[in-house]
Amino acid sequence: MYEFHANGTFDYSPGAVVEMPWRIENDELVLPPGTAGGPVQKKTIVWLGENKVQFIEGGSNEELTRSGDRSDAGNPIIGEWIGTREMSGRKLEMHWFFYPEGKGLFLLPFLSQHGHFTIRNSSLEIEMPNSSPVDFKFQVEGEVLTLVRLEGSVESRFAPY
Prior knowledge:
Layout: E1 2-4, E2 9-12, E3 15-21, E4 23-25, E5 28-31, E6 41-49, E7 52-57, E8 60-67, E9 79-87, E10 90-99, E11 103-109, E12 113-120, E13 123-127, E14 134-141, E15 144-149, E16 155-158
Antiparallel strand pairs: 1-2, 2-12, 3-11, 4-5, 5-6, 6-7, 7-8, 8-9, 9-10, 10-11, 12-13, 13-14, 14-15, 15-16
């Protein structure tokens, strides 16, 4: 995950990025199986207020807080939700995005690194502390950013969330 800022800095976070369909049945959030061939995931939804929700699955629960304003009066789950998840003794900030028509996105950055970037014509140079700058050719088509590393020709595509 990259987050570019107008002042020439960026944040980079390797982590989990999962697009998925979702639906609500009764008081449960239904998500695809967590493993190939596994059962669908069902999380009981407990509303703790208009901007707080708890997902309960088995013996675990996650409390989430809405980021921003409620955008759909008819479907209160629509929007961005932020919470924490513990992994290997570390608390990580997770983001759930619930979009209309049952599209969802889950982001779990494992760590964040900060750096600087420079744009010259169609070239992007990024630099992080304690490492050499890396040059990319970049292109934006619609909402997709394509980066091609000049050394090795490795191509990566990114979309906004």
